[in-house]
Every structure is written in C-alpha cells, then in structure tokens.
Amino acid sequence: MRLKVLIITAMAMLIGGLPAMGGDRREVELFNWQRYVAPEVITHMSEDFDWNVRLTTYERADDAEAALLARGSGYELAVIASESVGRLIDAGVLRDLSNFDIANRARLEQGLWGTFIEAMPEASKYAVPYAWGTLGLAYDVEAIQARLPDAPMDSWSLLFEPDNAKALQDCGISIVDSNEEVIAAILTYLGRDPHSREQEDLDAAFEVLEAIAPYVRYFDTDQYEGLLNGKVCAAISWSANSFGPMSEEEGGQVRYVLPKEGTNLWTDMFVIPDDVEEIEPSLRLINHFGDPAVIAANAPYTLTVVRSDDMRARIEEPYYDHPALRLPDDVADRLYYVKPHDGAGKLQLDRRWRKMQLGL
Questions:
Q1: For residue 268, what is the DSSP state?
Q2: Model pTM?
C-alpha cells in the first residue's frame, strides 16, 4: 500500500492565506484519492472553520478500503469508491448518518442519487456523494485513425476485439486497474448483465481480457500522464482521468466517449468511520463541499460531473459542455451502477485479475 501524506496547510502557505499548524487550532483528518480536492477548497475551509485540515491520499480503492477495515485510522472523514461502501457497511466500520441533516446534500446528489440507491439501497444511511463520473474510452484520434481507419470509435469493440487491440499495441493501450468496473463493461459489451455473478459470465469476461492482455501496456489507476504524454493512444479510463489531457494543449487530439453498448456511472462517497467520537466537524466538512462556490471550484480541479446549469455557469472551461461532464437525462438514463461483489467474491475476482495480468 502506497500512501502519500500531504500537510495541506503547508501547501496553502505557498498560495497564501492559511497560517501554519500550531497553537490550539484543531486538526481534522481527511482521507481522499490523490489529486482529488482543489487546494484552495481546503484553504478556505480551514479559514472558515479555524481548523487545520490534514489530508492523507491514496491511489487505489482497495488501499482505502483496507485502511478503513483496519479501524483506528484516525480519519474523521473519508472519500471512497462506491464499490467499497457495501463491504464496509457489512463489516460494521461506518457511522450511520441517517439522523443527521446535511443542508447542501441535494447539491452533491445532483439528481443521480435515487438511481444509485436502487442499485445499493443500504448505502443511503451511511454515505453522501462527493463526486460523480463515468467509465469510458479515451483515445488519440489521429493515432487510432492511422491504424484502424474503419474502427468503431464509439464502441467497446475498439479495445475488446483482439484484432483491434493488436493493431494498437505499438502506440499503447492502458486499462484502469478497477476489476469490478472493467468486468461489468465487458459483460455489457457481450450483451450480458453487467451485474452478473454467474461463473459462465465471469469466465466469458475473462476470456475477452485474456485475449487482449498481451497487447496492453499497463493496468493502472491513472491514465492521465499516459494519454497526455503519448505513452498510450487508447485507454479504458475514468472520465476524471480523461478530461485532464483533453483540457491540455498537448492533448488536443484526446477524445473521451461513452461506448454505445453502455457503461457505468460511478460516485465517490463521503463516509465517516464508526470510531469517530466527535462527528460535528465531519458533517460540517461534507456540507461545505456542497456549497455552490465550492462545487464550482472543486469540479474543474477533479474533472467530475456538474449537472446543474447554475453550477456550470460558474465554470468557465468550455469542455464542461461535454455530455459526459453534464450528463443530460438522455445520457444518464443509459448508464448503470456497478453492484459490488461481497468480500469473498471480490477476493476471488482480485486473484483472477492479477493472474490475468501476469499471463498465468
């Protein structure tokens, strides 16, 4: 497990405004994905509440899940992948939030929460959405057209067909290291239920993966650098990693699409560990992230969905008109949520995923 600890007050001193730690200022521990909260958001929050906010970051969802399962982490608020929530609830390590009012919660839900709860009803008592996004295809248009001029650019077959993957091997393919989401995408591509736990379906999905694995350059949680620097020309990627290169001048040829067969909508969620004694600071942090000004500042940094016209009007970046970042109803209606495997099922999936990567 690789964790990177950042003292946000030190970062804030570089951009101004926040005094160094010390004295009687309270420290609040926040646990989040790496590069997934705008520094100025933490700065302003620390000023508003007169707190020092200490941020610990992680790179893999499994690392965050393991840290919370172990208890005693000291984190007072955590942002985790939605697939982890059910297993953490089953383990009894999350605080029940159903009796607490969070005024700005509706803004964080963005009209998507009801559909999510249909897939994972148990989460309604324990989690609050932090950010929304999708899984899709990101690719360099010129590189793909040079090698596969007739390839379907809006279909999972661009990478799941072995002949296509082989043709793109020289310019590089990467796949996000999130087995539950990728397996669901393959099942969708095959015309099967993305939530299936049937062994026949899982075998079929891994057959697809094993056929293209020799042509995959790497499996990783971050496709941003590879797409931006031309190390890969095609990726199965989270939208938040794909829009970074699209917004950079060097990455002008990068395109992100939601495959026509369907794909999953994900949400990263706020949860509070059950061993947090003083819950009020955690609740205030959640509510702060739902403030309109905070959403408008944080969304372009995290490159996550903003559905509200009022919120998007505060964001100047033109790429926020992309359907995958505003998710109009006709797009959102075609997305699904990945129902998480239970602990035993996830362990089995993890083992098979690693063996596939190793070619075993």
A1: E
A2: 0.85
